[in-house]
Amino acid sequence: SAAAPLPEEDCMKLNPSFLGIALSSLLAIDLWASKRLGVCAGEGSAWGSARPLMKVIEVSGHGIPWLLGTFYGLCQSDSSAAREVLLNLLFALLLDLVLVAVVKGIVKRRRPTHNKMDMFVTISVDKYSFPSGHATRAALVCRFVLHHLVLAVPLRVLVVLWALIVGVSRVMLGRHNVTDVLFGLLLGYALYSVVEYCWLSPLSAPALFALW
């Protein structure tokens, strides 16, 4: 007698699509590379002695210092041009926090298994890994600073290096997988374009500037 046809989902497992194979392979490579590069994930890791330095870099890309620093500068500034730039930086940082939290809540990718949950000030969605909020913020702030502050070439290079180091440190600490950081950097770079499009000025948002 003829064999009963296999259920559709079993057929898909036996004959996976090229896209499915490619995605599974990329995921496996991502997990393998992330674990190999997590050289500061613990004190006993290959570069465990560099972990304190990596954690300082982690704090430098955290949202709370940036939000508090920007808000303080906004309150202390007596220049209308500086207030406009700082207000838009504050808007960019808040938009970044909301967008990253939403994406993390939708994707719900767990952090690498070799990560130690000793991160600086976390909230509920921080148990998820994709995308890296630090990487997103670093790319956003980097592009913002380069466009709105007049800096000498060495300082501009340092800003770019800082953003890249923040991204790399996330993998080295074991906080994120490589794809989390790469997507975060791309997202932060693109998010700046949204901020520029929605730029807040005394003409477009007079009520906000009246507060200051």
Automatic annotation (TrEMBL):
<dbReference type="Pfam" id="PF01569">
    <property type="entry name" value="PAP2"/>
</dbReference>
<keyword id="KW-0443">Lipid metabolism</keyword>
<dbReference type="GO" id="GO:0005637">
    <property type="term" value="C:nuclear inner membrane"/>
</dbReference>
<keyword id="KW-1133">Transmembrane helix</keyword>
<feature type="domain" description="Phosphatidic acid phosphatase type 2/haloperoxidase">
    <location>
        <begin position="85"/>
        <end position="196"/>
    </location>
</feature>
<dbReference type="GO" id="GO:0005789">
    <property type="term" value="C:endoplasmic reticulum membrane"/>
</dbReference>
<dbReference type="InterPro" id="IPR036938">
    <property type="entry name" value="PAP2/HPO_sf"/>
</dbReference>
<feature type="transmembrane region" description="Helical">
    <location>
        <begin position="86"/>
        <end position="107"/>
    </location>
</feature>
<dbReference type="GO" id="GO:0042392">
    <property type="term" value="F:sphingosine-1-phosphate phosphatase activity"/>
</dbReference>
<keyword id="KW-0539">Nucleus</keyword>
<comment type="similarity">
    <text>Belongs to the PA-phosphatase related phosphoesterase family.</text>
</comment>
<dbReference type="GO" id="GO:0006629">
    <property type="term" value="P:lipid metabolic process"/>
</dbReference>
<keyword id="KW-0256">Endoplasmic reticulum</keyword>
<keyword id="KW-0472">Membrane</keyword>
<protein>
    <recommendedName>
        <fullName>Polyisoprenoid diphosphate/phosphate phosphohydrolase PLPP6</fullName>
        <ecNumber>3.6.1.68</ecNumber>
    </recommendedName>
</protein>
<feature type="transmembrane region" description="Helical">
    <location>
        <begin position="181"/>
        <end position="200"/>
    </location>
</feature>
<keyword id="KW-0812">Transmembrane</keyword>
<dbReference type="InterPro" id="IPR000326">
    <property type="entry name" value="PAP2/HPO"/>
</dbReference>
<keyword id="KW-0378">Hydrolase</keyword>
<feature type="transmembrane region" description="Helical">
    <location>
        <begin position="144"/>
        <end position="169"/>
    </location>
</feature>
